[in-house]
Amino acid sequence: MSTFDTIVIGAGQAGLAMGCCLRPAGLNVVLLDNSERVSEAWRLRQASLRLFTPAQYDALPGLPCPAPAGHYPAKDEVADYLENYAHHFALPVQLQTQVTALEGASSAFVVRTNRGNCQTAQMAVATGPFQTPFTPAFAQQLDASIEQLHSSAYLNPKQLPKGEALVVGSGNSGLQIAEDLLDTHSVTLAWGRPQPFLPQRILGRSIFWWMERLGISRVKATSRLGKRLKQRPPVISSDLGALKRRGLKLAPRAEKASSQIVAFADGSSLKPSSIVWATGFRGDYSWIKLPVLDGQGRPVQQSVTAVQGLYFLGLSWQRTRGSALLAGRITQRIQTQPRGREPHGTTLVEPV
Q: Which domain of life is it from (predicted)?
């Protein structure tokens, strides 16, 4: 069984950032990832996808994003940057490695994978918030003639038949997909609850410039403002009014379906040819066999968990609004003592 000082599960942006921050400590580290290629998940996303943060806010520790300031990187630019980041710092990424269980032993964590088992004194879970696509149960009541796919499987408008396209979910992904479909389809966007919409630029500057200056990016999750933002996260997008002028129709929450009809909260209904479910994701931590999950299987943590030596990174609102963003900050506090002798609450790398 291989032994490491630290094992990081996940080699996305959070895992790569952690790997880079651990390098100066001289620890024996490995990053385990199930993909065939670093940043593969970015390459498999919709063709039109762009970040809503400009390039100057999209760098991980130690390596600037190569795109010019003010440019909004496309998904392949992000993928290239992350892959180059791993190569630039020679990060020890082990690909095609599926973690099947994380267990605790008396003196070490045991990580079971499809390529054998390994153990470590310190463990970081950086698998991110986007794991298992969620689709409401009533979607199963729809006729097979209606093309349905989750936003995670959406690539371009050619996937959908001609006619009325319904996009359910008005987060950033839902709005981007609805905009992408407007040139080829009649599009209705169903949003579950009113959300504040923020433009990408205000008075000639990125909304993230304003967030930095006003301290919104650093708002603590436990603060009054942080709790309000979590309840009603703003959508950062192009002009909603402009999309409506291009033909985008809005509908309230989609609540039920039958045969070929989707019914909305106000009693109206629609007969779509296709549906894109931009209804988010659910975490899957069933492989973690340690007492760090709540009754719904979600991590109980703020980076630090109740199990000494086990940490999470890259989840939404761990500490601040920016915790899960590519532009999020990371502060490092390297722990080099063996498990069992570490100061309680000391973290390896944590979002701030």
A: Bacteria
Rounded Cα gap, residues 196 and 47, in angstroms? 26
Q: Cα separation of 218 and 230, whole Å?
A: 13
H-state helical runs in 182-232: 207-214, 224-231
Greatest Cα pair distance, the chain, in angstroms, is 64
The topology under which CATH files domain 2-131+283-351 is: FAD/NAD(P)-binding domain (3.50.50)
**Residue 9: which pLDDT band, with cuts at 50, 70 and 90?**
very high
Question: Which residues belong to CATH 3.50.50.60 in the chain?
Answer: 2-131+283-351, 134-196+232-277
AA identity, residue 214:
L
* pLDDT of 114 above 80: yes
**The pLDDT of residue 325:** 63
Cα torsion through 222, 226, 230, 235, rounded to 10: -160
Note the pTM of the prediction, 2 decimals.
Answer: 0.85
Helical ranges in 106-150 per DSSP H: none
| Residue-level pLDDT at 346 | 36
What's the distance, CA 52 to chain centroid? Answer: 14
Is the distance from CB of 190 to CB of 170 less than 8 angstroms?
yes
